[in-house]
Amino acid sequence: MTSNGRDHFEIPKDVRSMAETSFDQARKAFEQFVSNAEAAAGRIEERNATMRSGARDISTKALAYAEQNVQASLDYAQSLLKAKDFTEIIKLHGEYVQGQMRALAEQASEMGQTVGRAAMEAVKPNN
């Protein structure tokens, strides 16, 4: 009994030592969990930056293609205004259609390559 009349209970040293060890292990596990979570968040951010870069490349290329195609259409329309007869209109139309088909094939090929590169970068493991 203690001086104030209550029983004094002392935690055995073995139990205290075991509790401290468990607490230290729990703290280390939590710190490792936080460290792993932060690393994962960093990898996700890197992956997002890579995907944003790929998306930016794709949208830049798409905008450039749209500009080229609109310019080609305006040039075609202007050439039609200068045509002297129906035969020249047919000739200009054929040239325009052939040119646009070639341009669209090239654009589709380049866009496919750009999308493929962006996809490969997005799934490439970071070492």
Query: Can you write the helix and strand succession as a string?
Result: HH
Flag low-confidence runs: none
Rounded radius of gyration (Å): 35 Å
Number of strands: 0
Quaternary structure: single chain
**Share of residues in helices:** over 70%
- Give the percentage of residues in beta strands: under 5%
Overall SS class: mainly alpha
Distance between the termini: 64 Å
Please count the helical segments: 2
The overall average pLDDT, rounded, is 82
What best-fitting shape do the alpha-carbon axes yield?
rod-shaped
Could you describe the largest sheet, including whether it forms a barrel? none
Can you characterise this structure?
The protein is mostly helical and 127 residues long. The chain has two helices and no strands. The two termini are 64 Å apart. The model has no long low-confidence stretch (mean pLDDT 82).
What's the helix and strand layout?
Blueprint: H1 13-81, H2 86-123
Quick overview of this protein structure:
With 127 residues, the protein is mainly α. It is built from two helices and no strands.
Keywords:
84% helix, 127 residues, mainly alpha
